């Protein structure tokens, strides 16, 4: 088993995912992926706006803080999907681990790019990154019941429901579930 650490993409994996979306460069040549390393102020604002519009965060959420925590942890990666035309951020996913399980956060796809396969492609890439570190399981927390089916279709199962209590602070203010999937080794 590999030791969990900060993964990097091999040239073959990078080529495999450089046109995430439909998975066919001929049909979707205008999307490229980037592993975020040093976000600009513009990137942070665009990411925060996408997360808010996707219902993942509340107004005023500090996306920069979450990005910095992930990037400085030594255990996480942030992948962005951008349009080739003007480098607009149209998708994000944050992948990391706690030493035992992989976790994905902030899987977001812009409204205009939904239904193209971009979300499932980003999730597959995150799973590959986590599996490459030697992790056997990936988990995700989901606050929107409408999103449960998306994850179920990709092999995830609900393993825990966590009700929001009055003592919990939640920007969105909803209960959430933890979903899990075994990763291919």
TrEMBL record:
Residues 1-22 are annotated as: Disordered. It holds the Pfam family Acetyltransf_7. Residues 34-184 form the N-acetyltransferase domain. InterPro entries: Acyl_CoA_acyltransferase (IPR016181), GNAT_dom (IPR000182). This is N-acetyltransferase domain-containing protein. It comes from Thalassospira xiamenensis.
């Amino acid at each position: 088993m590999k030791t969990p650490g900060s993964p990097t993409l091999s040239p073959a994996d990078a080529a495999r995912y450089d046109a995430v979306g439909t998975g066919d460069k001929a049909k979707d040549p205008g999307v490229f992926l980037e592993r975020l390393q040093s976000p600009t102020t513009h990137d942070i604002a665009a990411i925060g706006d996408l997360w808010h519009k996707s219902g993942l965060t509340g107004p005023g959420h500090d996306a920069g803080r979450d990005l910095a925590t992930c990037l400085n942890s030594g255990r996480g990666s942030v992948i962005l999907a951008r349009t080739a035309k003007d480098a607009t951020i149209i998708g994000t996913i944050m992948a990391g681990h706690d030493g035992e399980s992989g976790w994905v956060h902030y899987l977001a796809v812009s409204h205009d790019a939904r239904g193209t396969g971009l979300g499932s492609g980003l999730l597959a890439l995150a799973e590959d990154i986590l599996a490459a570190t030697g992790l056997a399981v990936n988990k995700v927390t989901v606050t929107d019941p409408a999103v449960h089916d998306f994850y179920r279709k990709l092999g995830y199962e609900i393993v825990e429901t966590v009700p929001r209590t009055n003592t919990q602070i939640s920007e969105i203010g909803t209960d959430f579930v933890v979903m899990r999937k075994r990763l291919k080794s």
